[in-house]
């Protein structure tokens, strides 16, 4: 009986450590994200508040969708923000994977990133460089 309890306890400890390690591994590589961001630079910047073809991504994490000052968003993006869409890891991951599926009617012409690692790295880059 004691052996079973010990075995269960050790198993839980190992699974917890593996889970924490996996989460740390999912933090992304900001340097690799900088390379991915090169696909975005025709339309976006992270290092200034200036809009280009697309809105500035400075401070995008935590921003309500469709609200960056001075940018003319599509009605669909404004509506998404009014309905509560805030850019966080999950919402940005969905949007970056398929912008038109996440916000039907978005003006963003980019088809999306298909590689989850690229998205994870891009999110790390945005977190590090868009504050």
UniProtKB/TrEMBL annotation:
| Record-level Gene Ontology MF annotations | electron transfer activity; heme binding; metal ion binding
Domain of life of the organism encoding this protein? Bacteria
Q: Spell out the InterPro entries in the cross-references.
A: Cyt_c-like_dom (IPR009056), Cyt_c-like_dom_sf (IPR036909), Cyt_c_1A/1B (IPR002327)
Per UniProt, the keywords (alphabetical) are:
Electron transport, Heme, Iron, Metal-binding, Signal, Transport
Iron listed as a keyword: yes
Claim: Signal is one of the keywords in the record: yes
Q: Which residues form the signal peptide?
A: 1-22
> Which segments constitute the Cytochrome c domain?
28-130
Q: What is the name of this protein?
A: Cytochrome C
Q: What is the lineage of its organism?
A: Bacteria, Pseudomonadati, Pseudomonadota, Alphaproteobacteria, Hyphomicrobiales
């Amino acid at each position: 009986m004691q052996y079973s309890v010990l075995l269960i306890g050790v198993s839980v400890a190992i699974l917890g450590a593996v889970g924490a390690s996996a989460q740390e591994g999912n933090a992304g590589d900001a340097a690799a994200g900088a390379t991915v961001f090169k696909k975005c630079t025709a339309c976006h910047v992270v290092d200034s508040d200036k809009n280009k073809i697309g809105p500035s991504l400075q401070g995008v994490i935590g921003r309500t969708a469709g609200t960056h000052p001075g940018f003319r968003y599509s009605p669909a993006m404004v509506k998404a923000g009014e309905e509560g869409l805030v850019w966080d890891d999950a919402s940005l991951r969905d949007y970056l994977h398929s912008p038109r599926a996440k916000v039907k009617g978005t003006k963003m012409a980019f088809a999306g990133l298909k590689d989850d690692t690229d998205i994870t790295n891009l999110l790390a880059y945005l977190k590090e460089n868009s504050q």
